[in-house]
Fold:
Amino acid sequence: MNDKTSIRFMNLRLPLKATVRHATASRKEGESLWVRANRGDVAGFGEGCPRDYVTGETLESCSQWLSQHLPEIETRCRSLDHLRAWHTEHAALVDQAPSAWCAVESALLDLFAREKGLSVETLLGQGSPVARYAYSAVLSDSKEWRFAFAVDNYLTRGLSDFKFKLSGDLQKDRDRLMRLTQLCAEHGVANPRVRLDANNLWPGRPEEAIEHLRRLDMPFFAIEEPVGAREVAGLSQVSLATECPVILDESLCSLNDLKLFDNAPGQFIANLKVSKVGGIFRGLELIEAIRARRWPIIVGAHVGETSLLTRAGFLFARAAGDSLLAHEGAFGSYLLEWDPAEPDLKFGRSGVIDLTQTFAEKTVQGLRIVPRETWDKGWGLSCCMPPTGNQAAERIQTYRAPDGYDIHYRLWGPESGDDVLVVLHGGMSHSGWQYPLAQALRGKSDLSVLAPDRRGCGLNAGKGELGTIGLVIQDVVEHLLHLKRSFKRIHLAGWCQGAQFASVAAARLQPRKILSSLVLMTPGFFWNDRFRSVIDIAEKTMFSLRSSFKAEPERHKAFVPIPMQATDFTFNREWLAFIHEDPLKTTKITMKSALIMDEMQEMSWSAILGVNLPILMILATGDRIVDNRKATEFLGPLIHRSPQNRLVTIDSAHAVQFEKTDELTETILSFIQSMASAPR
Structure:
């Protein structure tokens, strides 16, 4: 294989649907290191989950490690044998960043296996991944109502094996355990299997741990990490006093950790997490050594890990064989707001993922069937990374509105010249979503492209607060007047909701002949039935909750959710990842801003009919937001009013600038150039 291996990494901060708490940490988002290894047309993906309270790593420290060592890894790790050799020769380096190495190693294993048409298990001589994997329920230290809901959820799904996280508050722990018992009885589960997780609650104080455990008055079969990590004597003391095995998690990250317990009295269970132990090679070594000691094994998981590490955990479970006591993880989209890997590996009925049968999952596009042979290549997952633009090509600048508010905008190209295309973004997005179009336009023309952030959006202050309808319109109008000092011709474009603002601004400026043309990209004049229903349901739900809980939100507080999801814009995996990972998108607005948005749509209907400019309207065949039929019927007479006007339909989803960048670019340039050649 002569093609060079190229490895790229990024940090993923994946929002969680619920806050997960335990004694030493509280987490609202997952933190993963995401790696892609390419060679030719083949790509492999890997993941690591650095946790400072486990291995002392952070995303930042792992990124530094990768930046330093990836050039050598890319050059030397060209095959499975080379990968093993590098891992062995650089054991001390891997010790410094086990999660970072895990991400790289798992990506390269995926790549090498795909190149050979094998599963990672087969590549490593571990058999086939096709098996049944049964998972435990995990109960975090949460509020009583959320705890009861979680237990009901698990029991309804048929799970009866629980990992229960202690809080350290005796009465609270007793009450929650009693509640668990009551709910199990209510669901007809007589003997749930319960293990406790203390998350190092009593470092250096084994006597306190023992007293707390004795006073719980609830049977449990094991206790995880009751004292500080690697406190061998204290862990042994707890095991002997409670006559229960102690589960080693933070205390067992390497073979050297395992050896610490060789002469320790008591019973022990190993909890192995793929990322924590430094990846597949090290994990397999540990499993072999643990089985030789006849310890039971739990395959664990980090909160917030994606389906990729769930899939890697299958390999550990298979290698553990009859030593496997329990399996944690496989929460997927139960917990994650989005997962960059598909299919979404989450447990089903009775906590089982069954690959021996056809795997199926529900998606917004319907039921997805995953053929069994999918698991025969690499990890068997389809993964993605968000596209990255050339940030050096754009400049972020500010324009101060008359009321003193700073409007941030992105500029591609010269600050002055003949032509500039000003692009107004949609309701959830911001100016950065226009970078594919802007870069393509710059690559094929001398056109400058400018995209401002709307008031309360993107980089601007007061997220979710549009101000007033007068201000939000004035922002566009005054900015365009300001730009006229620098450019001969201004072409105003609006995408989705931005088309509403563009239409109103164009109508306001028409007497002053400021604009040369108007471009409407998948214009949001009329929402289709599906999206309109989503909006109505969201509004009714919000007002119902507000009434039920007697909430009185502040006037300037952004709490109204924008009822949109990434798949409303595109089904392209890379662009879905871009949207999910975008920290600047607007997801909540004030109640006043919601009124402004509704009013702006209605204002745009009369405004666009009065615009006497060359107009280009672009519709998308697969639009899940805009009603193309109504838009065509409403604006058809306007489009046919002048031979300069055009209506173009592109085979794309709503975010046409993502999916059909080149076609959109050619369409806009052709339109603008046709005006330059038209008789005056």
Summary: The chain has 22 helices and 27 strands. The two ends are 61 Å apart (CA to CA).
